[in-house]
Amino acid sequence: MNGFLKTKAVLVTGGAGFIGSHTVVELLQENETVVVIDNLSNAASDANNLPPAISRIKSIVTSSQAKNLHFIKGGYGDKSMLDKVFKKYNIQAVIHFGGFKAVGESKQLPLMYYRNNVAETLNLIKAMNEHNVKNMIFSSSATVYSEGPPEDLPLVEESPLGNCTCPYASTKLFIENILRDVTMSDDGWKVMALRYFNPVGAHKSGKIGEDPKGIPNNLMPYIAQVAVGRRKHLNVFGNDYPTIDGTGVRDYVHVVDVAKGHTAALHALDAMKSGFRAYNLGSGRGTSVLEMVQIFSEVSGVEIKTQIKERRPGDVAIFYCDPARAWNELGWKTEKTVHDMCADLWTFQQNNPNGYVSAEYNGKT
Ligand SMILES: NC(=O)c1ccc[n+]([C@@H]2O[C@H](COP(=O)([O-])OP(=O)(O)OC[C@H]3O[C@@H](n4cnc5c(N)ncnc54)[C@H](O)[C@@H]3O)[C@@H](O)[C@H]2O)c1
Ligand SMILES: CC(=O)N[C@H]1[C@@H](OP(=O)(O)OP(=O)(O)OC[C@H]2O[C@@H](n3ccc(=O)[nH]c3=O)[C@H](O)[C@@H]2O)O[C@H](CO)[C@H](O)[C@@H]1O
Fold it and tell me: Buried (b) or exposed (e) across 234-248, using 16+ Cβ within 10 A?
């Protein structure tokens, strides 16, 4: 290789997090060079102030692929740091996972959410513009859709947006709109917004997975912590919804399938001329809370105790998508089942009963 030429690289913000780390594995396995920027605000760090997720990723891929991974601790809105990164690496595209994502917290601390998610993203876009890097894949969310009647399901990309139920959801919609406007102002820009439904599970190796701080807000990490003995029982939020068994129905999607959605999008972005395009990343199938509990119990062999509670404010009865656009245009569809999601989550939880930074780590790296 000509030593003066910089190898092409993908910049991944939030790459030490749950979905980012799984995507970095897929990118490295496609022999991409990957530069991760993460300030570790929601990712565990070890005694050396480095994220265990990064060393675990390196242990999953081959040693030559591991050499293509570069980690920088910092904020994705830090303009002077970004200038250095864009000068040092030949960045071709940015996959922007970084951001805060807790619905309840965003209601308590809206300004923190608008600053970190929206304002810092403006800095990132500015730096990309200045360094002529105009390809982005953005982590959007199913929460950008407006809640409508059940007849409107499944959700397609043209379903009504807005009426966001929390500041977190608003930040996702604002960023989508900002990115759309940017592509309209400059046809050098190409952006894909991937609207994830309910990403769950873990890498099959059991080395990387979701590591929520404190009490999990979401269903699957909570179930896994009940199974491993960290929590006594699962609170089931409502059993009087108009669903198969009265509990909420969601479109769960394996995190490795979500990660593969990004490599598919990266290839499609290459072929795209310009503009903005949104895609649903979901399975197109709904599963209820009690069905998930049942499947997790079967897979783990552990009984999950449940208690029925009041509905959680802001929850909808049923939410699932039509993923046809992603299939038709990205050649992507889910490959893994809800059993796979539960089995892989259980392997990760057993290996890491207290998360990444734990004296009790049982896995082999
Ligand atoms: N997990 C889900 O269920 C879900 C669903 C829909 C959308 N999303 C979106 O997907 C993205 C990734 O989600 P995740 O579940 O992997 O979350 P995560 O919290 O595990 O990962 C996000 C990462 O971003 C980092 N980060 C936050 N602010 C930063 C900043 N200013 N600079 C640098 N790094 C920063 C955090 O430290 C973390 O490692 C998020 O944008 C989230 O909103 C997630
Ligand atoms: C209100 C809320 O937080 N929404 C977020 C949550 O969507 P969801 O509410 O779709 O995901 P979730 O995992 O929090 O809940 C899924 C289903 O499980 C139910 N449930 C959940 C936890 C629990 O302890 N007991 C229980 O019964 C819940 O009522 C719902 O019917 O996660 C998504 C990502 O996956 C998005 O980030 C959403 O913005």
Answer: bebbbbebebeebbb
